[in-house]
Recover the amino acids of this structure.
């Protein structure tokens, strides 16, 4: 990591969950990016790119581990009635309840605001994009000035495209059965899905009716949550994204049509994979240009 100012601290969310975080750069910088990592990531996800955004007094980054970090984790929740001062909270992408992302992002945004940040922007990557848009739909009066979506792919589209219909439908039926039987936080049995995940999260991520099916280019549903966002949006797609189920030009067209009439820009980074590794310079320029012209 280059020689930049760094502060490691805990975010305590409004619902008292304790989340580890790092502030890169000057807390009172003109622009502060709050980074929302993707499925199973953590505060170090994409940090090689995030550090390139730090620019002395102009730009800083707050990156944190949201409750979906890792596969299965135990996080601390403040409880002053306990001698330890904490309860333990089961978390990780396998058990995360998607709507809880609002509390996580609230905590991060409030921390940036309390530190003296002037202009706060969300940067979501991968499933962090769904979280960023969902947050904005629930917090229309938040201090967030705009949202950057990096590689906003539909998890439903990926799951449906890269599993045969029989296997997918078998998993869907099992998740629905478990939800009906009150087993929402029990893990999907071995043989039904290749990753560790509970029934409610499977349905949330991979069903066309799931809460996380916000970018509905595959399911064909009206993107109601996306349309509720009124903040300026920059959509940055990776041309060689390994999680896309169709040509990136088609996904770009879908976003352009879905966001028509809203303050939005849609860009494709040529040759970029889902992580944007190898294309950081071009990605940074797209973001810098948007900050100047996209609001």
């Amino acid at each position: 990591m280059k020689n930049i100012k760094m502060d490691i601290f805990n975010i305590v969310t409004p619902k008292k969950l304790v989340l580890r975080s790092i502030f890169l750069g000057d807390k009172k910088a003109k622009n502060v990016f709050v980074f929302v990592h993707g499925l199973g990531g953590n505060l170090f996800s994409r940090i090689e790119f995030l550090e390139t955004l730090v620019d002395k007094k102009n730009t800083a980054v707050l990156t944190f581990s949201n409750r979906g970090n890792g596969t299965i984790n135990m996080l601390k929740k403040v409880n002053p009635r306990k001698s330890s001062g904490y309860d333990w909270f089961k978390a990780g992408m396998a058990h995360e309840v998607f709507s809880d992302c609002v509390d996580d992002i609230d905590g991060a945004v409030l921390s940036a605001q309390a530190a003296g940040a002037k202009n706060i922007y969300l940067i979501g990557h991968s499933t962090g994009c769904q979280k960023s848009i969902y947050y904005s739909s629930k917090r229309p009066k938040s201090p967030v000035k705009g949202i950057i979506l990096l590689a906003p792919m539909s998890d439903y589209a990926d799951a449906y495209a890269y599993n045969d219909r029989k296997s997918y439908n078998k998993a869907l039926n099992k998740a629905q059965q478990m939800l009906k039987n009150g087993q929402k936080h029990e893990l999907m049995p071995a043989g039904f899905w290749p990753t560790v995940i509970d029934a409610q999260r499977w349905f949330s991520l991979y069903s066309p009716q799931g809460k996380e099916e916000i970018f509905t280019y595959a399911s064909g549903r009206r993107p109601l949550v996306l349309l509720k966002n009124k903040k300026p949006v920059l959509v940055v797609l990776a041309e060689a994204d390994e999680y896309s189920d169709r040509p990136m030009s088609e996904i770009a067209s879908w976003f352009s049509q879905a966001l028509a009439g809203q303050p939005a820009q849609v860009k494709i980074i040529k040759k970029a994979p889902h992580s944007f590794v190898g294309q950081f310079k071009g990605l940074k320029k797209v973001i810098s240009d948007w900050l100047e012209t996209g609001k």
Summary: Residues 162-212 form one domain. Residues 1 and 51 are 7 Å apart (CA to CA). The two ends are 30 Å apart (CA to CA). The beta strands are 6-12, 18-24, 31-36, 59-64, 73-78, 86-91, 119-125, 144-150, 233-238, 264-269.
